[in-house]
Amino acid sequence: MLAFDPNKRITVEDALCHPYLSELHCPEDEPTTEPVSPFDFDFEIYELKSGDYRDLMYEEIMLYHSEVSKLEYE
Hints:
single chain; 3 helices
């Protein structure tokens, strides 16, 4: 799992079948899905300045520390 080359790494499915995890393996309770597209980088279309990043970080922090911000977000 720590191999740098992804082609040499064990897959998630193989890891779950590995004897080390045999006691934790429960196929009925393990959801599967399709891999995420490696080209799903919509966030990169924005050209933000440092002030924009600061504002976004502040908004994110406030979601965890302000009920008003949390309710506005939801």
